[in-house]
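Example with several molecule types.
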Amino acid sequence: KAGVTQTPRYLIKTRGQQVTLSCSPISGHRSVSWYQQTPGQGLQFLFEYFSETQRNKGNFPGRFSGRQFSNSRSEMNVSTLELGDSALYLCASSLAGLADQETQYFGPGTRLLVL
Amino acid sequence: QQQVKQSPQSLIVQKGGISIINCAYENTAFDYFPWYQQFPGKGPALLIAIRPDVSEKKEGRFTISFNKSAKQFSLHIMDSQPGDSATYFCAASKNGQNFVFGPGTRLSVLP
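Resulting structure tokens for the full complex:
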């Protein structure tokens, strides 16, 4: 079974631009969660999508948004990029989602650098 | 109250030794405590998880000890191997919400 895939793997943007990251979950998984990982703040939960609906949301500004498609693939969008948005963005998929305490499988991440 | 504290920040252990990483939380509503292992260039991977109705859970060389009254939980890696060298994160959540992670512990196991 293929694992979680994320594209692109690396991305360089400038302040003020917007960016869209993509995540394809493991086949059959309906939940996709997104996380931001930085040296200073560590791992932080962004949001979870399940069956095309946002189910949980972390403490991030509205510039961070996401969506999930009917095939469970998910995209995350960051608008008006700031230097502090430079991070590794990870997505994770699970069968039934975080509320069921199902095992999450993480992708390799997208490394975003904002100049 | 949402924070999860983790110590030590880094740990060096000889091969065959025991690695111990500790975490503490404030929110008594947390009901799920997973540990993740992350290698450089990879995403985290679930290692082992525990719920507060259990005081200890063992899977192979990995054991979680949970102390509900002290609001602490720890990961023990027995017979540590160089291949265990990675960063370990504890985490906590309530009903899949408020998913918070500790800052991580970088473990180095010397051959």
